[in-house]
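From the thread on structure requests for the teaching lab: each student submitted one protein with a one-line request. Submission from student K.M.:

"Model Large ribosomal subunit protein uL4 from Cellulophaga lytica, tokens only."
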Amino acid sequence: MKVAVLDSKGKDTGRKVDLSDSVFAIEPNKHAVYLDVKQYLAHQRQGNHKSKERAEIAGSTRKIKKQKGTGTARAGSIKSPVFRGGGRIFGPRPKDYKQKLNKNVKRLARKSAFSIKQNENAILVVEDFNFDAPKTKEFTQVLKSLGIENKKSLIVLGDSNNNVYLSSRNLKRSEVVINSELSTYKILNASSVVLCESALEGIVSNLNK
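Reply posted by the TA:
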């Protein structure tokens, strides 16, 4: 599949690159996509929720009133959950939400995500670009030139580029990653996926192992 290569100003360079059909033109496997996105979202959960139960509350252990003759219910401890400041009944405890997923399923999910985006014509291939210094204004101009300034965008670099990354950090709708940081969720969550030329080889080799 041949795709035109654009420069950072959004103009056609006259060159084309071949997007591998094994990555960008497969029949999407929706169940694999579901499993991978589910795992990604589960791993975002810290799982450190905790409330103190009766045994963990600091307080006196004396019987707070006599057993009979008060006209009210019996009570043996100020740490009882029925009293204000008492322990929590069946409260949340720390939990690990991590899920296991086969590597082949994860690769299939990412191929499916790329194929979905390609079917939507939401993938752009751009020449590698760089800035002399981190400048959000220059990065915004690149997005504007590509016609994706007001869209959620995912820019995929071949190698880490600190100036490009720092230039994008203040923009909520745009995210810059290198090809090894790609996830199915990030690909699908973006309205437009911008692939730098240097990232293509790494993407194909990682997903065709």
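TA comment: The mean pLDDT is 93. The first helix runs from residue 21 to 24.
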